[in-house]
Amino acid sequence: MKSKMSQTDVLKMKPKLPLVPLGTLIGRELRNESLEKPTIKYGQAALAKKGEDYFMIKLDCQRVPGNPSTSFSVFAIFDGHNGISAAIFVKENLLNNVVSAIPQDVAREEWLHALPRALVAGFVKTDIEFQQKGMCYSIYMSSFLWFSLGFFVPTSGTTVTFVVIDGWTVTVASVGDSRCILDTQGGVVSLLTVDHRLEENVEERERVTASGGEVGRLNVFGGNEVGPLRCWPGGLCLSRSIGDPDVGEFIVPVPHVKQVKLSNAGGRLIIASDGIWDALSSDTAAQSCRGLPAELAAKLVVKEALRSRGLKDDTTCLVVDIIPYDRPVLPSTPRKKQNLFSSLIFGKRYHNSKNKTTNKLSAVGSVEELFEEGSAMLAERLGKDFPLSSNSELFRCAVCQVDQPPSDGLSVNSGPFFSPASKPWEGPFLCTKCRNKKDAMEGKRPSIPQ
User: Fold this and answer.
1) Which of 65, 177, 212, 253 is most buried, by CB atoms within 10 Å?
2) What pLDDT shows up at residue 224?
3) Which tens digit of pLDDT belongs to each residue from 11-47?
């Protein structure tokens, strides 16, 4: 006669599962988190005509040093003109100036919220530093690069297209006419930058003339005008750049900034200098390389530009795929015309930062627009909630991040005289040097590097 086994006896007979160390459990959680982050794949290609294009690729940036879970990536193109010193200087200094303008030890969402404003501060700070050090820097560089060639360029400037990728969030800041486009899974091609060519941008022409500059074409013998619209003095075709110390202060370094969040379907960025965009439209560039790996896609875009126009200028292209971790390449999608709703979302327009929290989705591709602003006025770009110095007796300049006593500067929104009635704690603080730069950009006074 068989005796029945009790429930306790059955439990005793079951094999015991081994204990899992806490470190292993944490590791599994971290791996699960990493699966939610996209994979970044990129390609780069270039052909040199003048040798003034530079680019940056950094995949190992960290919001918190030493913490891999806070990583983000940076891709940038610097299209120099009148020499290479500005492009090199900006490449070496801009990222640090942007990061230093964001408070330390903040959560990721706060970091992303502060990033557009920090990009503005970083661009302006880098321009001020180059204006002060650019001449010495050019002399230093010439001793290595230009002396043997028999010529010397005392001044230079550069366009900048600067892309920060943190998870599925893409933030783009730009001055000049290099461009960044987004090609989503639905086949919609969207501009993430605004061209600052005087020929094409009416708002910038009006701003330059209102600030004291003149806009016109080159006059040749007989009074005929030729070529694109230029800003005088200096003759630059652009209304925004970093550097260019020999042109008026109305050529400003304040970037257009746009921040979007992709769906987990991902997307492709094409970042390129004007050597590409003078030959190819945004749609043509995107369509020409769909379905190809990023490395091959970049080469094909450059090849297509060369076939279309010849090598008229430096051509540099970065292709960046933001894709789910388990996909080797973005799938090819048929080209679709942009509908009215998505064109309203991705059209060339400026948003005040107050609209930042408004969630807008494109009809195709599920791209959420988080922020867009393009004003050249610092008071509109730095906001009123810029962090103050941790020392209550000091102000921190919102641009150069230097702590100074209140008597040495003014609030960006204050009048010409500092007094308690001006409420200097409202709005970001600027030191005297950066305040002078701001006034000069607005046509109020000349700015002389010190």
Assistant:
1) 253
2) 80
3) 455 455 455 565 554 454 444 444 478 999 999 999 9
Identify whether the C-beta of residue 80 lies closer than 8 Å to the C-beta of residue 86. Answer: yes
C-alpha–C-alpha distance, residues 127 and 398, integer Å: 14
Whole domain around residue 208: which residue ranges? 197-237
* Residue 43: φ, ψ to 5°: -140, 155
CA separation for the pair 436, 111 (Å, rounded)? 29
Q: Which residue has the tokens 């990129």?
A: 42
Q: Does a structural domain hold residue 3?
A: no
First vs last C-alpha separation in the chain: 104
User: Across 189-244, where does the E strand assignment appear?
Assistant: 189-191, 214-219, 225-232, 242-243
> DSSP string spanning 410-447?
EETTS-SS--GGG-TTSS-EEEHHHHHHHHHHTTSS--
In terms of phi and psi (left: phi > 0; alpha: psi -120 to 50; beta: otherwise), the region of 235 is left
* C-alpha–C-alpha distance, residues 435 and 317, integer Å: 36
For residue 44, the surrounding DSSP H or E stretch is strand 39-47
**Quick one: 365 and 420 in the same domain?**
no
Count CB atoms within 10 A of the CB of residue 289: 25
Place of tokens 């971790």: 325
| Contacting residues for 241 by C-beta, under 8 A, at least 6 apart | 81, 157, 158, 159, 160, 175, 176, 196, 251, 253
Whole-structure pTM value: 0.80
